[in-house]
Specification:
The complex is a heterodimer of chains A (about 140) and B (about 425).
Chain A lengths: L1 E10 L4 H11 L4 E8 L3 E8 L2 H10 L4 E11 L5 H11 L4 E8 L6 E7 L2 H10 L9
Chain B lengths: L5 H4 L3 H22 L1 H9 L21 H6 L13 E6 L9 E5 H17 L7 E4 L7 H13 L2 E3 L6 H10 L4 E4 L1 H13 L11 E5 L5 H11 L2 E8 L4 E6 L7 E3 L4 E6 L13 E7 L10 E7 L1 E2 L11 E2 L4 E2 L4 E3 L2 E3 L1 H11 L6 E8 L2 E9 L9 H19 L4 E5 L14 E3 L4
Classes of the chains: A alpha+beta (about 140), B alpha/beta (about 425).
């Protein structure tokens, strides 16, 4: 259920996001999921890719501040209440969500959510016990 | 009243030269006998205190720097026993490294007179109510002006700084006729008046005495128009005494130096050689009357020039041009002295931060703003916004406690701040002074 996410520091400046995604595109890497958290001055770009470690190296070589973060990724039923049930489970077990975002599988049959929580091992146990399965990147 | 002290302010060249020479030779002797650093420096220069007989011998003396005060922190350069001190002030600085200055009763008296001369030159009389909006405390601005007002016999209103709305009510209700504060604060007051639709004429000010930060002729016109006052410049620094080292007269044509107490020289920043009238260079002062802290040839690193031409006001006191800049990297932000090195040491003390930063100083709504751009490093980076905001808060908090002023922290991407081979460009000052 654990996957590796790349977290990238990015200034709020015109064209910067395009530049970074362009570097990834030039290496023929597909971004599976993406989320941006932004403040007035800066943002954090979070992406899920295949082969996160090699993408990390590519970005570092381009002087970009990037770190690999372990996050939870699980499949959720693509129907009303699917995400709500996951969040209630976590909340009932006193697990706090730092951030989350979702994406669809390539064949559009499964919805996935990426979760960053305060206690990822406890969260994994709770979710597995309730029948949730994960998504894996290499 | 035209002059506070006519015989001094209009003395002939010879009269002043003799008074200065007498005081200088006595002061050098006292500094040599009582301040170990001066004994050592004068000995090292291969001269004897008695070699300094007149102002012409001044250039034989070694210079004093701000660093000397820091190195002997807090009282190492005082020339009197502790029980002769009646007050200390201190300038801002990194904790433990601020410069502490001391005064005997005579020092306070002569400082007060210097301020009183400035007040009179700005047209202040015993009948005036003088609103002092400089901070009261270790900063010399508030108490310095206050004692000058009392010395003159005018009425001091010790408003101190902050709470602009209350300041405006006081200006309206107390009938203040003279305002003393930093020029940027004067403009800020005028902004607030505009915002609140208060006609400046409802405030009975006739003049303002502004200092503690560099300002321009344009800013003077702006303040005069907006507040309906005549704006006078007052210059000083705590090491020499505080505000009142030099001052504007009604002709606003250079600041008269109280040279019966403070000798002024302009020196070449490279060679250290004194420069003739009219040539810009570093301003150097020698205190020739002060007892507690008789600094000899103290290099302020302010840039200005002097003229001995006779002023229309009748004063013969030498005039210095307004300060046009500094020869070192010290910034004056909201009246507070800030060295980039202080900011650097705070950034490094926070940890995880690379020593790549840029200091951006600007002026918005007439108040100085300080922004520090800090490069994000891998060690400091977090995938959580909360983590980065916490880091920002930590940097901001430490800076504020060290500098005494708040700064905006902006994180920028790694390797985006220009690296240079030689001296790094750390400061961008966008203020139009």
């Amino acid at each position: 259920m654990f996957i590796k996410q790349l977290s990238i520091f990015i200034e709020n400046r015109k064209g910067r996001l395009a530049e970074i995604t362009d570097i990834i595109a030039k290496h023929d890497i597909n971004i599976k999921a993406l989320s941006i958290a932004d403040t007035t001055n800066f943002g954090i770009l979070r992406i899920i890719v295949d082969e996160p470690n090699s993408v990390e190296n590519i970005l570092s070589d381009n002087q970009i501040t990037v770190s690999v973060t372990t996050v939870l990724c699980l499949a959720v039923p693509d129907k009303p209440g699917g995400i709500a049930r996951v969040l209630s489970l976590l909340s009932d077990n006193d697990i706090t969500v730092e951030y989350m975002y979702g994406f669809m599988s390539a064949d559009e049959t499964t919805a996935f959510i990426v979760l960053r929580v305060d206690d990822e091992f406890k969260a994994q146990d709770v979710l597995k016990a309730n029948g949730y399965s994960g998504y894996n990147n290499k | 009243m035209l002059y506070y002290n006519k015989s001094i302010e209009t003395a002939t060249y010879d009269e002043m030269f003799h008074l200065q020479s007498y005081r200088l030779s006595k002061t050098v002797r006292r500094a040599y006998d009582n301040v170990p650093l001066y004994k050592q420096r004068i000995d090292a220069a291969g001269i004897f205190p008695e070699d300094i007989k007149s102002v012409d011998d001044l250039r034989k003396l070694p210079y004093t720097q701000k660093k000397d005060l820091r190195d002997t922190y807090p009282y190492g350069m005082f020339a009197v026993p502790r029980n002769k001190l009646v007050r200390v002030h201190a300038s801002s600085g990194t904790t433990g490294k601020q410069t502490v200055v001391g005064y005997t009763q005579n020092d306070i008296d002569l400082w007060s007179e210097c301020v009183a001369r400035a007040l009179v030159a700005a047209g202040t009389t015993e009948d005036d109510f003088v609103h002092v909006s400089y901070g009261y405390g270790l900063f010399t601005g508030g108490l310095g002006l206050h004692y000058g007002v009392e010395k003159l016999g005018a009425t001091a209103i010790p408003a101190s700084s902050g709470n602009t709305a209350r300041q405006i009510t006081m200006l309206q209700d107390f009938g203040s006729s003279v305002l003393c504060c930093t020029p940027s604060y004067a403009l800020y007051i005028s902004d607030v008046l505009r915002q609140q639709n208060i006609d400046p004429k409802t405030i009975n000010l006739k003049s303002g005495i502004f200092g503690a930060e560099p300002w321009s002729e344009n800013m003077r016109h702006e303040i005069e128009a907006r507040l309906n006052v005549k704006a006078f410049d007052i210059y000083g620094l705590s090491e020499i005494c505080g505000p009142g080292v030099s001052f504007d007269c009604e002709y606003q044509n250079g600041l008269h130096v109280n040279e019966d107490h403070f000798l002024i020289e302009i020196v070449d920043p490279e060679s250290g050689m004194p420069l003739p009238d009219g040539e810009p260079g570093e301003v150097v002062f020698t205190c020739i009357s002060k007892e507690a802290l008789p600094l000899l040839r103290y290099n302020t690193h302010d840039i200005s020039s002097i003229t001995h031409e006779r002023c229309e006001c009748g004063r013969t006191l030498v005039r210095m041009d307004r300060i046009t800049g500094r020869s070192d990297d010290m910034l004056i932000i909201r009246g507070v002295n800030v060295f980039p090195s202080q900011i650097e040491s705070v950034l490094l003390s926070v940890g995880q931060i690379e020593p790549h930063y840029l200091i951006v100083v600007d002026r918005q709504n007439n108040l100085d703003t300080l922004e520090i751009k800090v490069e994000m490093s891998l060690a400091a980076f977090s995938d959580k916004i909360r983590g980065l905001e916490e880091l920002e808060r930590r940097i901001r908090g430490s800076l504020e406690s060290v500098l005494g002023i708040s700064a905006k922290i902006t994180f920028v991407e790694a390797n985006t701040i220009q690296r240079s081979e030689g001296k790094a460009k750390r400061v961008i000052d966008n203020r139009k002074l």
